[in-house]
Design a protein that fits this description.
The structure holds two protein chains of two kinds. Chain A is an alpha/beta fold. Chain A folds into two domains: about 60 residues; about 170 residues, Endonuclease, Chain A (2-Layer Sandwich), CATH 3.30.870. In chain A, about 60% of the residues lie in helices and about 15% in strands. By secondary structure, chain B is mainly α. Chain B is built from two helices and one strand, in the order H-E-H. The model of chain B has no long low-confidence stretch (mean pLDDT about 85). Classes of the chains: A alpha/beta, B mainly alpha. Chains A and B meet through helix 3, helix 4 and strand 1 of A and helix 1, strand 1 and helix 2 of B.
């Protein structure tokens, strides 16, 4: 142990010991003073002019015990009666009211304090949850992606795609037909009007994972393949209209469905064994300043899949 | 005896007033500070707090 630490520890110990000793003396002094006060009280009550001996004290105690019921009656019945009824009725009523009010208010204050402490814990909990939501960038959760009242907000996504600040739309999907591939699909018109970069990754037609996905959602593999080709056809139309469109196939098992714009991420999950992705919840995530927000992480995931599929580009010119 | 009855009556009244005040006041405090933790329905859209007000305004405007 170093010298300063030894001195510090020693000083601490000495201070603590001296405080303890001081407190002991103070306590003894207080007890002695209290004893003297009680003795003077006894002397006053029994009108003694000397320190009582033990037999004398016993005699006084016995006399007091015998007259105790009378004292009790005097203090608890006669004196209060005289004070309240005979001497100061107004003052007595005032005192009683004040005492009642004080007791009631003290109890209520205690109860309110207890409830507020409990609520403070709830708020603290909510505060932490809120921070997590902000850090993750979570904007909302929707029970499904159907174009219904309580479904995911396709309309606001389209508005966001078409906003002047937005420069790209990245889509990672399975067959794309219900997202942008056919007229009436939610992004069909938005992609038509959009002038930024479009990147799309779709399931490779005829691949084993594609057949697995088709089986999971109860669609004939041929129909599923047809849906993919339909979506690709739509992309080619866009490309012919001078849109900046790139697309690739991937051969893996579809897992995340992602739609990414400059500021928003749309996430769903292709649950193995179905149901259709439209029936799965949608998470909307905003871009955050912190690099570990979900938007950036899923954006990196899209880039990773995009690079992995570099060998399977979809021909846009045929 | 009369004195005893009067003082006992007053004491009873005081205790009753305290008990009644605490009982009624507690109900008031509970009602005022009540916070119900509601279960959030997962079959409805849930928006993060910072987006709720904007969304409500948008819906009203629509």
């Amino acid at each position: 142990m170093k010298l300063p630490e030894i001195i510090k520890t020693g000083a601490k110990g000495a201070t603590s010991d001296s405080l303890k000793e001081g407190w002991k003396y103070l306590r003894r002094l207080a007890i002695t003073a209290l004893g003297l006060y009680v003795l003077s009280l006894v002397q006053t009550v029994y009108e003694l002019d000397h320190f009582p001996s033990w037999p004398e004290a016993r005699g006084l105690l016995w006399t007091s015990l015998k007259s105790f019921p009378a004292v009790l009656r005097d203090w608890f019945i006669s004196k209060p009666y005289d004070f309240i009824i005979e001497e100061h009725p107004g003052l007595a009523v005032l005192i009683i009211c004040l005492v009642v009010a004080t007791i009631v208010l003290a109890v209520l204050l205690g109860r309110a304090n207890k409830i507020l402490n409990r609520q403070s814990e709830i708020l603290n909990h909510a505060d932490r949850t809120y921070t997590l939501v902000i850090q993750a960038g979570i904007k909302g959760r929707y029970p499904h992606a159907k174009q219904a009242e309580d479904g995911a907000p396709w309309k606001s996504l389209c508005e966001e795609i078409l906003s002047s600040e937005n420069k790209f739309v990245y889509i990672l999907g399975a067959n794309g037909i219900d997202t942008f591939g056919k007229p009436g699909s939610p992004l069909y018109d938005a992609l038509q009007s959009f002038r930024g970069t479009i990147r799309v990754i779709l399931c490779k037609p005829g691949s084993k994972p594609m057949k697995g996905r088709a089986a999971a959602v109860g669609i004939n593999p041929n129909d599923y393949e047809k849906a993919i080709r339909e979506s690709v056809k739509r992309l080619r139309v866009l490309r012919k209209q001078a849109h900046s469109v790139e697309a690739r196939y991937y051969e893996g098992q579809p897992n995340w469905k992602l739609i990414i714009t400059n500021s928003t991420l749309w996430v769903q999950y292709y649950l193995p064994g179905g149901p259709h992705v439209d029936q799965t919840p949608v998470w909307l995530v905003s871009v955050t300043d912190n690099v570990d927000g979900f938007y950036r992480l899923f954006h990196m995931e899209f880039d990773r899949v995009w690079e992995r599929c570099a060998g399977s580009p979809i021909n846009m010119n045929s | 005896m009369f004195e005893f009855l009067v003082v006992t009556g007053i004491a009873g009244g005081v205790v009753g007033a305290v008990a009644g005040g605490i009982s009624l006041g507690s109900r008031y405090v509970e009602a005022k500070l009540r916070y119900e933790e509601k279960d959030v329905r997962l079959d409805q859209p849930i928006l993060a707090p910072q987006h709720r007000h904007g969304k409500i305004r948008e819906e009203r405007a629509a």
